[in-house]
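User: Hey, my collaborator sent me this sequence without any context and asked if I could get a structure. I don't really work with proteins. Can you help?
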Amino acid sequence: MKSGLGRGFDSLIPTELFDDEFDITAAEDKKESELKELPIDKVVRDEEQPRKEFNKEAIEALAASIKEHGVLQPIVVTKEEDKYKIVAGERRWRASKLAGLDKIPAIVRSIDLQKRLELAIIENAQREDLNAIELATAYAKLKAQFNLTAKEIAARVGKSESSVFNTMRLLNFPDDVKQTIVKEKLSEGVMRPLVTAEPEMVKKVLPKIIEEGWTARKVERYMADNKKKSSASLIKKDNYRKDEDALSAKYGVGVKISGRSLTFKCKNEKELRELISKL
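Assistant: No problem. I've predicted the 3D structure and written it out in structure-token form, which is a compact way to encode the shape of the chain:
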């Protein structure tokens, strides 16, 4: 994908696995799609697929994972005569072959159904009543099962590429946080500043958003202030570390600076007596 997002869309968003609970076309999909174990030699790549090169090391790493855990997400194929053409999941197919698998799990759809489902997802993704996680899941499904890039998804749903990317980042939250987003009807905007935050920070801020009605701007300010404090604290610790090292070298014992306290750590009474004589 050639865009300002670089590798981010593929490396930062969990598009391979998403929760069916939030899949807006799951029911329709299950009615008409078939989940099968296909002979791997009956599966062929789409020669019109523009991506021709695959990172060898990445495929080998995926093959190792498949040997240990199996194929976690089925590939998507359409039936053509006695073969099955890959729509999405060529990496998994290549890695499965490398891992020595005879069969691979696949969602089998007709070409017409594939097109209808894509249109259904796009139409649903344009609805105003979708919650943020449902929308993120719709984008993830278009990526994982319809092989669309962020740019292509954005063009189809009438949003910017960065908007699609940021919405999908919500899928990085743990399941309990995603459930809270849905239950409390929290917007993408108010949650976006927390996407890269530590879990403890998310747990700390989430009740404030819900109970105190924090806006996206207030969350951003809080996170920025917290980052400044953390940075200042790290600088302070680094400065103390230099002082600790210098004092330790001077007196020959361990030294710890905490707050306004200076502690000498002696291994035995002899070290303690020697320290006292130097002070």
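In plain terms: The two ends are 65 Å apart (CA to CA). You can pass these tokens on to your collaborator as they are.
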